[in-house]
Amino acid sequence: MTKHDFQRPDYRRPVYQANKADRLAIMDPNKPDNDVSGGSRNVSSIFDRFSRAHEEILFALRSVNRPSLLDWLLGGNYEIFSWQRDHLRNLCMQGWGGPVQDSR
């Protein structure tokens, strides 16, 4: 074999490993026989949560008093932000946190 001959890498090894059946099999795009799924050990609980969310959405859609799905996606309780804004406003009005003087 000369130095210009190309040796094709052997990518026939499967990425899936039976001892890691509880994880995803994520193939490295630069080395297909390399499984880069080390951080997917909690994938079963994530899939379970998505499954429960799907069931809750289907149940809500069948409900007589169907809620808006946008409320679920975008809605939230923002009272803490209003409280914080009011608190910061009061501190500012009391003279706390005024303009910083340059000490140069």
Q: What is the secondary structure topology, with strand pairs?
A:
Blueprint lengths: L26 E2 L2 E5 L7 H20 L6 H6 L4 H15 L11
How would you sum up this structure, described in words?
This protein is mainly alpha-helical. Helices cover 39% and strands 7% of the residues. It contains three helices and two strands; from the N terminus they run ββααα. The chain has helices at residues 43-62, 69-74, 79-93; strands at 27-28, 31-35. A two-stranded antiparallel sheet has the order 1-2. The mean pLDDT is 77.
Number of strands: 2
Low-confidence stretches: none
Into which percent range does the helicity of residues fall? 25-40%
Distance between the termini: 72 Å
Structural class, from secondary structure content?
mainly alpha
* Integer average pLDDT: 77
Total count of helical runs of at least 4 residues? 3
**Strand order within the widest sheet?**
1-2
Percentage beta strand: 5-15%
So what's the overall shape? flat
- Main beta sheet, described? 2 strands, antiparallel
Order of helices and strands: EEHHH
Radius of gyration: 28 Å
